[in-house]
Write a structure and sequence with these properties.
The protein has 292 residues and is mainly beta. It has one domain: TolB, C-terminal domain (Neuraminidase), CATH 2.120.10.30. 14% of the residues lie in helices and 45% in strands. The strands form six sheets. It has an eight-stranded mixed β-sheet. The chain has a four-stranded antiparallel β-sheet with strand order 2-3-4-5, with no helix packed on it. A hairpin with a 6-residue loop joins strand 18 and strand 19. The longest helix is centred in the N-terminal third of the chain and has 40 residues. It is globular. 35% of the residues are buried.
């Protein structure tokens, strides 16, 4: 019987070391996949939305307006000559009334430091603002931005818009939730697909001429979908809309597009993004007519 040797020989030690390194590499790979999964899902969904039978549009910039580059834009809506903007980040979230032409903030209400502001919608004489992961929606008087109520929901709160009958809310998945604008109870759901593929990462929303426009986080894509069927009817990308010099502010790179507003009376479509220095009025065109 051989005596027990607590020290392995050189070959055994090398095998153990190699096995340990392989295990560490595998664990690192699994961690990286877990961290990237939500982003890859959104990118895959947006890529599928831009392929197959779904039309891809280009755009023309009609006019450019100034925008507060410190605003981490999470929601944008246009109503009777004014922009209403919801901004995010803990300790910096706000609801704002903004002059479109000058970009000047005319009135602002700050949220509690524990709330991360998200999407904004207009309903009659009220403004509705969602918050991220807190399950709390805020209701304001549109005239003076005084908070007059709140409501709760069980999903994440991201984007919100209105079709004139319901509030339509996104939660970062492929599901849009239809809410009663008076009671805030869920009335139904819209499952969003492009050529049969679920489109996840739905964020900021805007109702435009009978269709819903939605930013797909964390990409440059905006999808256009049917509120009746959830089917994506068209897509366009804002990649490159910010020119060199505008894509960095105070040494900090701007974030993704996240802000869609529509002027129903003037038939004007506006887009912006988190920390962007500009708001763009754009017009969609066939891809082969795209020019900027």
């Amino acid at each position: 019987m051989q005596p027990f040797d607590p020290m392995p020989d050189k070959k055994s030690f090398q095998r153990m070391r190699t096995a340990s390194l392989l295990i560490l590499m595998l664990l690192a790979l699994l961690a990286a996949i877990a961290l990237r999964a939500p982003i890859l899902e959104a990118q895959t969904a947006s890529d599928s939305a831009g392929s197959g039978s779904v039309p891809v549009f280009g755009y023309q910039i009609i006019k450019t307006y100034p925008h507060d580059s410190a605003a981490f834009t999470q929601g944008l809506v246009y109503d009777k000559g004014m922009l209403y903007e919801g901004t995010g980040e803990f300790g910096q979230s706000s609801l704002r009334r903004v002059d479109l032409e000058t970009g000047r903030v005319l009135k602002q209400k700050s949220l509690a430091g524990t709330l991360f502001g998200e999407g904004v919608a207009v309903w009659k004489d009220r403004l509705i603002q969602l918050t991220w992961r807190s399950g709390i929606g805020l209701v304001y008087d549109k005239e003076n931005l005084t908070r007059i109520g709140e409501f709760s929901y069980e999903t994440e709160g991201l984007g919100i818009t209105s079709d004139g009958r319901n509030l339509i809310m996104s939660d970062g998945t492929e599901t849009l939730h239809l809410l009663d604008p008076e009671t805030f109870e869920e009335q139904g759901q819209i499952k969003v697909k492009a050529d049969g593929v679920p489109v996840k990462g739905l964020n900021e929303l805007e109702y435009v001429k009978g269709e819903i426009y939605a930013n797909v986080w964390p990409t440059n894509w905006i999808v256009i979908l049917s509120p009746e069927t959830g089917e994506v009817k068209g897509v366009f990308s804002l990649q490159g809309i910010l020119q060199k010099g505008d894509d960095q502010q105070d040494g900090q790179r701007v974030d993704v597009p996240n802000g869609i507003a529509y002027d129903n009376e003037g038939d004007r479509l506006f887009v912006t993004g988190k920390l962007w220095p500009k708001i763009f009025q754009i017009e969609l065109v066939a891809e082969n007519e795209k020019s900027k």
